[in-house]
Design brief:
The complex is a heterodimer. By secondary structure, chain A is an alpha+beta fold. Chain A folds into 2 domains: 212 residues, Alpha-Beta Plaits (2-Layer Sandwich), CATH 3.30.70; 55 residues. Chain A contains 9 helices and 9 strands. In chain A, strands 8-1-9 form a 3-stranded mixed beta sheet. Chain A has a two-stranded antiparallel ribbon with strand order 2-3. In chain A, strands 4-5 form a two-stranded antiparallel ribbon. In chain A, strand 4 and strand 5 form a beta hairpin. The radius of gyration of chain A is 27 Å and the shape is elongated. Chain B is of the alpha/beta class. Chain B has 2 domains: 230 residues, 3-Layer(aba) Sandwich (Rossmann fold), CATH 3.40.50.700; 95 residues, Irregular (Cytochrome-c3 Hydrogenase, Chain A, domain 2). Chain B has 13 helices and 9 strands. The longest helix of chain B is centred in the last third of the chain and has 45 residues. Chain B is elongated, with a radius of gyration of 35 Å. The chains are: A alpha+beta, B alpha/beta. Chains A and B meet through strand 2 of A and helix 13 of B.
Chain lengths: 313, 391
């Protein structure tokens, strides 16, 4: 029997519905594969950076080098003359900011860029796997082809790192990717190569942590709480910080040692265990509908009697 | 010029000795060459001034023929104003300047004979330096040399040269005479001669050390130095004036001159807003000042750069027009950690709350009104329907 126009359209409709359904199922399956396990641990070959605020002189060589290495257009929107971003943005993956207390002393510079979390919230929050954590060196990077532009990553990041290209017609998510193209050819990230005081250094996370602890041990009391930020905070980060002023003054949030995905997915997993919550929700909703349906029927009959017309609903 | 004796007598070292130039002042020149042309000049890759002196000393004095076309002789003047080391003297000793209209004693037919003789004697070996642009409109009648248009003279002498150096912006691409509306159709050397090695030394005037570096490189190494896309030697023209400007700190701190003679001008602040073309101009002026006197260069004396070494800037862009900053760099100031953009102020939050409340309230009131209205309508319809049914 030849296929009719009606058959074709029906099949197309059926096909697209099943494709969407399949896509949803696969997406859910992928997410669950990635996060059904325990929170991610530090990878054996994890690379990172160590920034020591006591060594930084605020020269911004790293800001300029970052823009150049990543082909970022200098952000001159402030005065038209200087590369003067006021915050991380679509043109700025790396920025030097100043902490200046009202009293005037105890100031500090701080370098902001992606922390490359051990268990990144942005990767967990991304619905389409547009953000991934490299399985070898742990660098968190973004893939334009998979991004839907939902900006969940921007909302979920505790350090406010991923930035959305508001001006773009096909906007990008912009964040530090630790110069992954440079790493691939055996080079260091641009920012660490240009730092004149070696305030920011590149290396394996383990080595950097050892170096940071060595510095703390050498000068006890110099660094805030004799602590390395990023060793445990938010499940640990691959970019580590040393500072002489409290980390909160440098704009860091108070995070427990638990990683963000772990913290939230714990509740999510609980809700979905044995499908308990969805089933309860469904049953409740059906109950409410049934109850309403009965009262609606009664009401309808009353109306029909009153008007002598057939009910419209 | 005729030289007696052997090949050895014609070397730079031998000539300097004959002329009574001390070994010391020659070494001073060589070390100056290292300082002024630190990169891109193969000569200065030698480790010490002594080694450069040896390399140059062994070299046979290059024959140089200097032609003047539509120029102001400023390029020759800058050469003569150079004093420590005495480059004006040394350039006459180090090179064999066989023809130069303003410096030679001869005139008229005698001068013409000197040119012909120099070209004939050194055909295929001499370096031709051209100063000034060449008029091309109406077969080049706007400038004549011994009855011949400049165009023909350049084609004739240029065809016999080993290499051509276009000295100054006019010879490089037309310079002042080519400014709009360019009545004489002035062009640079490389628009006329296509089959020779040409190097451009733009500038109004260029630093004489650039010429000395190029001539000596050619004489000692037998080749011209590495050039950029505008045929400018990289050792002198690879960086922006802005990158090494002594007033750069004022630019980064946002301290600008707004009017000639104002307080900021007297303080020596940045001239960018006065139309300084430094951020768009590739030249070594900010590191190699003129006349060996510190701060003797336009920006040093408080005048904005006009961009004379750039084909598309000088004599084409108005003097007081500011240029775009192509490679913007970070300024002196810093954004504060606690001044994040995009945070919600208390006022904004209150306003948003007010609006939400107002909209909610309005919606509620409207829905109440609709409900009443509906009831009223239903009753009306009821009566109507009943009425119709009755009929």
């Amino acid at each position: 029997m030849p296929m009719t126009r009606r058959d074709l359209l029906t099949k197309i409709a059926a096909g697209s519905v099943s494709a969407v359904a399949a896509g949803c199922v696969t997406g859910t399956a992928l997410t669950s594969v990635a996060y059904a396990e325990e929170p991610l641990k530090v990878l054996p070959h994890a690379v990172g950076m160590l920034y020591d605020a006591t060594r930084c002189v605020g020269c911004k060589s790293c800001v300029a080098a970052c823009a150049e290495a990543n082909n970022l257009q200098p952000d001159t929107r402030l005065d038209g003359l200087h590369q003067a971003p006021t915050d991380l943005n679509a043109f700025t993956k790396n920025i030097i900011k100043l902490y200046k207390p009202a009293s005037g002393d105890g100031f500090s510079y701080v370098k902001q860029q992606c922390m490359h979390c051990v268990d990144p919230a942005c990767v967990a929050g991304c619905s389409f796997h547009a953000l991934t954590k490299d399985k070898d060196n742990g660098v968190v990077s973004w893939h334009s082809s998979l991004c839907s532009g939902c900006r969940y990553c921007q909302i979920v990041c505790p350090y406010h790192v991923p930035r959305f290209e508001w001006e773009g017609r096909n906007p990008l998510i912009v964040k530090c990717e630790m110069c992954k193209e440079r790493l691939a050819v055996g080079k260091e990230p641009a920012c660490t190569t240009v730092c004149p005081t070696r305030a920011v250094i590149f290396g394996h996370r383990d080595d950097l942590l050892a170096e940071a602890k060595k510095r703390i041990k050498k000068t006890p009391g110099k660094y805030f709480e004799d602590r390395v930020f990023g060793e445990f905070e938010g499940g640990g980060t691959q970019v580590l910080y040393l500072s002489h002023v409290p980390f909160e003054n440098l704009g860091f949030p108070h995070l427990g040692t638990e990683s963000i995905p772990d913290k939230f997915l714990k509740w999510q997993k609980l809700a979905y265990s044995y499908m308990a919550v969805p089933v309860v929700l469904y049953v409740t909703m059906v109950g409410v509908m049934r109850k309403n349906w009965a009262s609606h029927q009664e009401h309808m009959e009353e109306e029909q009697k009153k008007t002598g017309l057939r009910a419209q609903l | 010029m005729a030289h007696d004796g052997t090949e050895k007598d014609q070397t730079i070292a031998a000539h300097l000795e004959r002329c009574g130039v001390s070994r010391r002042s020659f070494l001073q020149l060589c070390s100056a060459l290292m300082v002024t042309a630190p990169v891109g000049l193969a000569l200065t890759e030698k480790a010490s001034a002594l080694e450069i002196a040896q390399a140059i000393g062994r070299t046979k004095r290059p024959s140089v023929i200097w032609l003047h076309f539509q120029d102001c002789t400023g390029c020759s003047e800058t050469l003569l104003r150079t004093s420590k080391p005495d480059v004006a003297d040394l350039i006459l000793n180090v090179i064999s300047l066989d023809y130069h209209e303003t410096l030679m004693v001869a005139s008229g037919h005698q001068a013409e004979a000197a040119l012909n003789q120099a070209v004939k004697e050194n055909a295929g070996k001499f370096v031709l330096v051209v100063e000034g642009s060449i008029p091309t409109k109406e077969q080049g009648i706007y400038m004549k040399l011994a009855g011949k248009p400049a165009l023909d003279v350049l084609k004739d002498v240029g065809s016999k040269a080993a290499a051509i150096i276009a000295m100054g912006s006019c010879a490089s691409w037309g310079g002042v005479p080519s400014a709009d509306p360019n009545p004489t159709g002035a062009v640079g050397v490389d628009s006329i001669i296509k089959d020779k090695a040409i190097i451009n030394l733009p500038g109004c005037p260029p630093n004489p050390y650039n010429l000395l570096g190029v001539v000596l490189e050619f004489a000692a190494m037998g080749k011209l130095p590495a050039c950029d896309e505008l045929k400018r030697p990289k050792f002198a023209y690879d960086r922006l004036i802005h990158d090494h400007c002594p007033r750069r700190a004022h630019f980064d701190a946002g301290r600008f001159v707004h009017d000639f003679g104002d307080e900021a001008h007297r303080e020596g602040y940045c001239l960018y807003k006065m139309g300084c073309k430094g951020p768009a101009t590739h030249a070594g002026c900010s590191t190699r000042h003129f006349n060996e006197t510190p701060d003797v260069w336009p920006i040093g004396i408080g005048a904005p750069c006009v961009g004379c070494t750039e084909k598309s800037v000088a004599f084409r862009v108005p003097i007081f027009q500011t240029v775009d900053i192509h490679n913007a760099t970070p300024p002196e100031g810093y954004p504060l950690v606690n001044s994040q953009t995009g945070s919600l102020g208390a006022g904004a939050a209150a306003l948003a709350g007010l609006i939400t409340g107002a909209v909610g309230g309005a919606a509620w009131t409207t829905s109440q009104k609709f409900a009443k209205h509906d009831e009223a309508e239903i009753t009306e319809e009821d009566t109507d329907v009943v009425g119709k049914g009755g009929k």
